[in-house]
Amino acid sequence: MRSADWYGGNSKDAYIHRAWMRRGNPDSSLTGTRPQIAIINTASDLAPCNMHLDDVAQSVKNGIWEAGGVPYNLPMVSLGESNVRPTAMLWRNMVAMSTEEMIRANPVDGVVLLGGCDKTIPALLMGAASVNLPAIVISGGPMLNGTFKGQLLGCGTGVWKFSNEVRAGKMSQEDFYNSEKSMIRSKGHCNTMGTASTMASMAEALGMSLPGLAGTPAPDSRLLQGAHASGVRIVEMVAENLKPSDIMTASSFANAIVALGAIGGSTNAVVHLLAIAGRLGVKLSLDDFDRIGSRIPLLVNLQPAGEFLMEDLFRAGGLAAVMKEVEEHLDRSAITVTGKPYVDSLKNAEIYDSKVIAQYATPLQPEAGIAVLKGNIAPDGAVIKPAAASKNLLVHTGKAVIFESIEDFHARIDDPDLDVDENSVLVLRGCGPKGYPGMPEVSNMAIPKKLLEKGITDLVRICDGRMSGTAFGTVVLHVSPEGAVGGPLAKLQNGDLIELNVPARSLNVKISDAELAARTPSAAMVQALAQPDRGWEKLYIDHVEQSHLGADLDFLRGASGSKTPRESH
Question: Which neighbouring-strand residues pair with 507?
């Protein structure tokens, strides 16, 4: 085993490694014969969705000990989507790099990836993929259902809905405040089909979690049971030398894209899956999401695209029941951390509540997967989530209303003199990977107050940033190349006719190629772009790739392996 490079033998260096790690562990734990397992733990009091992960880690430890391994808690940078500014996405790659480096630097033979909030699971998967030691994912699980005035209240989704109602004068500030106290009922991540729930589902669809574990509510004792079983399994995986590259193949990514469509998952999954694939050398492109997943039917009736919440999905049969319905679209060669085909885990899956999980023959929507748009606004692509969009706006032409930055947007959106109507197309730029930096979740721009007061609740919106997986609306996002690198989005002008045609997969401004080429990027946008001169932001801007490539750092694509580093003493 790899850890024997540290603990085996009778050299001075082995003495140092063993002596400092004894700490009451049995002698057998440091002979170089028992698998050393690191639990990469993103618990943090400032990442609310991950606050409970230390409890989960203890169950993992118990399982590792039971199976004959030796567990170690390895804290990792945690990203709380609800707190960190300017956006958690800015540090996803840093967490991935830290995960990779800390796994490689330490005497470990396998790793348990313990995350929850949006960016933690993809970051951990990216880092583990680059080292390629045996690894298994445990998601911390969603919180329990929230309710307000007798109605289900989904975290995130309720915020967007209620804030619009307050601005439209349909909800009092008192009720808005009281709903805030009703939304978060328990430990766990967002209970909607937001990015956290989506990425937990993606990890399982990729084969990197024990089948059936994704979506287990955080307070449910079965999460701890699954964590224990995952601890047992990682020790077995070390013995079998079953690595991420064996599991996360092109077939697995194809299955994950199918799952993404069937659950109505977050658009954020696109940049995360692209980045993970890039670490493994798996050829995955933006076009694959449209080719494989765009016409997968929506089967899960969850907010923001539906009615229910994650607790309901779990009791209705969970991800397995959903994937059983779309089994004909799955690649049967893909395996899981069990070493067995993914489809084998679906044999006994069953729908227990057809209101929450629809059958394949009677879907909620016939074609609901992520749609990829291209055209003279987005030569390298943009994405839209049809399941969360207004059907009447999927084919639409309207005049552009341009915002040069998020500050510009907030300053003018409710101006009664803003030249905007129900046919307008809101455009926010300078919010891509380099421009903001980090692609913040600002693409689902608020509807102008004067339109809300008229009963208008959706407009076509276009941005080079992201939106929360809990959000909804006809939002075109991840426009690539972004405005900050001179993409066409930077050259749009107020009043330009924007033509969106989702069935045709097109997004265009109605001007000639010559006129578009002759225009220069907006000076106001350029002035508003981030211009750090030091630290992580500087490194990030200098090296981050565009969204259609996964927004990883250019020097982190691919893998460096698990070779033991040079001696330390």
Answer: 500
**CATH top-level class for 35-145+185-346?**
alpha beta
Closest CA to 563 of 132, 113, 126, 236: 132
Query: Where do the H-state alpha helices sit in 414-568?
Result: 449-452, 513-518, 523-528, 535-543
Q: 369 CB contacts (<8 Å, ≥6 apart)?
A: 257, 260, 261, 289, 290, 292, 293, 294, 295, 296, 386
> For the stretch 522-539, what's the b/e string if a residue is b when 16 or more beta carbons lie within 10 angstroms of its beta carbon?
beebbebbbeeeeeebeb
- Give SS3 for 558: coil
Of the candidates 145, 92, 158, 147, the one whose C-alpha atom is nearest the C-alpha of residue 120 is: 92
From the list 403, 401, 411, 299, the residue with the least C-alpha distance to 355 is 299
Contact 346, 320 (CB under 8 A): yes
Per-residue pLDDT of the chain (569 residues; tens, 9 = 90+): 999 999 998 899 999 999 999 888 898 999 888 999 999 999 999 999 999 999 999 999 999 999 999 999 999 999 998 999 999 999 999 999 999 999 999 999 999 999 999 999 999 999 999 999 999 999 999 999 999 998 999 888 888 888 888 888 889 999 998 898 888 999 999 999 999 999 999 999 999 999 999 999 999 999 999 999 999 999 999 999 999 999 999 999 999 999 999 999 999 999 999 999 999 999 999 999 999 999 899 999 999 889 999 999 999 999 999 999 999 999 999 999 999 999 999 999 999 999 999 999 999 999 888 999 999 999 999 999 998 899 999 999 999 999 999 999 999 999 999 999 999 999 999 999 999 999 999 999 999 999 999 999 999 999 999 998 888 899 999 999 999 999 999 999 999 999 999 999 999 999 999 999 999 999 999 999 999 999 999 999 999 999 999 999 999 999 999 999 998 88
Q: Phi and psi dihedrals of 189, rounded to 5? A: -90, -175
Measured CA to CA in angstroms, residue 454 lies from 250, 417, 421, 495 at distances of 48, 15, 10, 22
- The angle at the Cα of 436, spanning 434 to 440, to the nearest 5 degrees, equals 110
| Cα–Cα dist 137/187, whole Å | 19
- In the chain, ranges of CATH 3.40.50.2300 domains: 35-145+185-346
Domain with CATH 3.50.30.80 in the chain: 371-531
Query: Strand 497-501 and strand 475-480: pairing?
Result: unpaired
Tokens (6 digits) for 133: 């030691």
Superfamily assignment of 371-531 in CATH?
A: IlvD/EDD C-terminal domain-like (3.50.30.80)
Please state, in angstroms and rounded to a whole number, the distance separating the CA atoms of residues 203 and 211. 10
